[in-house]
Amino acid sequence: MFEGQLLGIFIAPRESAPMRSVDSVEALANTGLAEDRYALAAGTFSKPRAARPDQQVTLIESEALAAARDDYGIDLPPAASRRNLLTAGVPLNHLVGREFFVGAVRLRGLELCEPCKHLEKLTQEGVVKALVHRGGLRAQIVAGGTLHVGDRIRPCNGTE
Fold this sequence. Notes:
Elements: E1 4-11, E2 20-22, E3 24-28, E4 32-33, E5 57-61, H1 62-72, E6 85-88, E7 99-102, E8 105-112, H2 117-122, H3 127-131, E9 137-143, E10 145-148, E11 152-155
Parallel strand pairs: 5-6
Antiparallel strand pairs: 1-2, 1-6, 1-11, 3-4, 3-10, 5-9, 7-8, 7-11, 8-9
C-alpha cells in the first residue's frame, strides 16, 4: 500500500519539442493528455498515427531522478525526462498491470518506460544507463478528468 503525490505535469505539442510545465491538464480517457504530443498523434513514437494505450501518459518518480543525480552525476530536470507526470512516494515499477488513481483520474499501468537513445540525444550522455529500470511507467487513462499538481496518488482498492 502506498500514498504518493503528483509533483509536476509536463506536456509538449509535438515530437522533440520542449516539455512545458502546467498546473493542471485534462486527462482524456483512452486518448492522452490534452495538448500533449501523444494525444495529438504527433509524438516521436506515434507512427502509425493511431492512438495506442501505452502512449497515453508516462510517469516518473522524483526519487529516480534524485538517484540518477546521486549515483551517476546526471542532473536531469523533471521536464527533460520527457515524462508527463512527476510523482513522489509511488513505486511505479510495481504498478505494471495494476490500476491506480491520480486525483480522480484512473490509470492502468501497462509497462515500464525504459529510457531510450532518443532521450539521451535530447539530454545528455549517460541518461540511459542512469535511468535503466527506473525510467518510469507507461499508463493508459481508464477514466479521465482533470489532473492537478498536488493530487494524491493511490492504488485502486478493487471496489472503486
